[in-house]
């Protein structure tokens, strides 16, 4: 008989976080229920301003508009930010299909729900996956857009599932 085990690993902030590079590595952003829009130097400035000013509370960033590989998602509201990077969204298991989330150490393993209104209109975000560090979240988003990688100036909770024989 097989059983699914969930794994968690905590990735701390780097001693000296990576500096912000130039360029753009991520091609598209999506705000549900809209269509993908290209990220350019001009749209990046507008995107950052809208997120920082709180005009946009959700966004998806990707090079794969089918959202099967490597996308970042932000859902926010009420001063809380749930930022997640999904490496493989095809239903796979194992560390290759990991997802990385912001987290609040005080709420780990808590089922407490937030009041964040998700862009899909139905999902619920638990408090454990959130942070109130707006500056770090905004920097992590820009870094991802510029590099396609996670910024090491914010702590991440890496999660994945693995099927094992009992």
Account of the 3D structure:
By secondary structure, the chain is α+β, with helices and mostly antiparallel strands. The chain has 2 helices and 8 strands. The chain has helices at 41-52, 134-147, and strands at residues 2-11, 28-30, 37-38, 58-62, 69-77, 80-88, 99-101, 156-165. It has an 8-stranded antiparallel sheet with strand order 1-8-7-6-5-4-2-3, covered by helices on one side. Strand 4 and strand 5 form a beta hairpin. It is globular and about 55 Å long. The protein starts with a strand and ends with a strand.
Task: Give the helices and strands, then pairings.
Elements: E1 2-11, E2 28-30, E3 37-38, H1 41-52, E4 58-62, E5 69-77, E6 80-88, E7 99-101, H2 134-147, E8 156-165
Antiparallel strand pairs: 1-8, 2-3, 2-4, 4-5, 5-6, 6-7, 7-8
Give a brief outline of the structure.
The chain is an alpha+beta fold. Helices cover 16% and strands 31% of the residues.
Q: Into which percentage range does the β-strand content fall?
A: 25-35%
- Give the helix tally: 2
Order of helices and strands: EEEHEEEEHE
Main pleated sheet = 8 strands, antiparallel
Calculate Rg over CA atoms: 16 Å
Work out the oligomeric state of the chains in this entry: single chain
Structural class: alpha+beta
> Mean pLDDT, as a whole number?
92
The CA-CA distance between the termini, in Å, is: 6 Å
Helix content: 10-25%
- Any low-confidence stretches, pLDDT <50, length ≥5? none
Output the strand order for the largest sheet: 1-8-7-6-5-4-2-3
* Principal-axis shape: globular
């Amino acid at each position: 008989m097989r059983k699914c085990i969930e794994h968690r690993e905590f990735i701390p902030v780097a001693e000296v976080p990576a500096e912000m590079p130039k360029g753009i590595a991520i091609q598209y952003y999506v705000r549900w229920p809209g269509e993908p829009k290209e990220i350019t130097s001009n749209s990046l400035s507008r995107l950052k301003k809208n997120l920082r000013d709180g005009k946009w509370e959700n966004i998806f960033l990707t090079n794969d508009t089918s959202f099967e590989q490597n996308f970042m998602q932000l859902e926010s509201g009420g001063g809380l930010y749930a930022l997640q990077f999904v490496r493989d969204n095809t239903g796979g298991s194992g560390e290759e299909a990991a997802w990385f989330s912001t987290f609040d150490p005080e709420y780990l393993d808590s089922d407490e729900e937030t009041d964040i209104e998700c862009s899909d209109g139905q999902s619920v975000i638990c408090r454990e996956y959130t942070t109130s560090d707006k500056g770090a979240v905004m920097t992590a988003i820009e870094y991802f857009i510029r590099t396609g990688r996670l910024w090491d100036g914010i702590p991440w909770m890496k999660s994945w599932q693995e099927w094992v024989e009992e």
